[in-house]
Amino acid sequence: MKKKIILGTALILILGATGSFVYYDYYHAPRRTLTFLPKKAIKVAIQPFKGIDKGSVLEVKKGIERYYGLKVIILPDIPLPIHAKNTHILKKYHLQLPVRYRADSLIAYLRKTKSSKYDYVIGLTHQDISVTKPKKPKWLYTDWGIFGLGYRPGPTCIVSTHRLYRYANLAQMRTRLRKIAIHELGHNLNLRHCPHRNCVMQSARESMKTIDNEPESLCDSCKNIIKRKFIVNFPEEQMGKL
Ligand SMILES: [Zn+2]
Ligand SMILES: [Zn+2]
């Protein structure tokens, strides 16, 4: 009897946990809006780096699939490349900063190791990532922590969850994560930073507030840039109905 009760409680807890996850996910993820992309012709993969939680990986997969209307494959986890650590930068400039991974080295690594099976690879890490900004003061901007980085245009980008938990519950954190992934893939698809407030391609301007205030979608002019790119590059039969 006791066993049955324990089993029953465990089952309710498990169902409750997965139920709320599924419910939450369907509730918050945007509907697919870019119906014009050639779904079968563009292959996207997520490359998780060791240590990233599965929930975040699934969130990015669903966010990209729903927003861009593309199929996303999840690759097996790989370790972060040691050469991408910021150690040499800290040494060179005598900086006392925490360990971060250089975002430009990570997207170069992803490009170098990318299988030709995929057109775009989104790297995902829980570690802090950084770039050097041509700004002063040097001690602050030589190893500046960022949310994500992507080639424009190009085949790879990287997104870090490290800074997304600040002042956020799980749902808010994951909304930020989807927006950043949509933004970085946007760069890969040749989108620049956009001045429109109703667009996910705005520059974060070094603030999480920008990301929290922007919508999880592209403005019409950014959509048109992507549309033009694929109308030129793909024959009509691959485009489906425009
Ligand atoms: Zn950007
Ligand atoms: Zn825009």
Structure report:
It is globular, with a radius of gyration of 20 Å. It has 242 residues and is of the alpha/beta class. Strand 1, helix 2 and strand 2 (72-74) form a beta-alpha-beta unit. The longest helix is centred in the N-terminal third of the chain and has 27 residues, at 2-28. Residues 15-27 have low confidence and may be disordered. The strands form 2 sheets. The chain has a 5-stranded mixed beta sheet with strand order 2-1-4-8-7, with helices on both faces. Strands 3-5-6 form a 3-stranded mixed beta sheet. The chain has 9 helices and 8 strands. The chain folds into 2 domains: 1-30; 34-239, Collagenase (Catalytic Domain). The termini are far apart. Helix 2 crosses helix 6 (170-188). It has helices at 2-28, 54-68, 87-92, 103-113, 138-141, 170-188, 208-213, 220-233, 236-239, and strands at residues 44-48, 72-74, 101-102, 120-125, 129-131, 144-146, 148-150, 156-160.
What is this structure, in a nutshell?
By secondary structure, the chain is α/β, with parallel strands linked by helices.
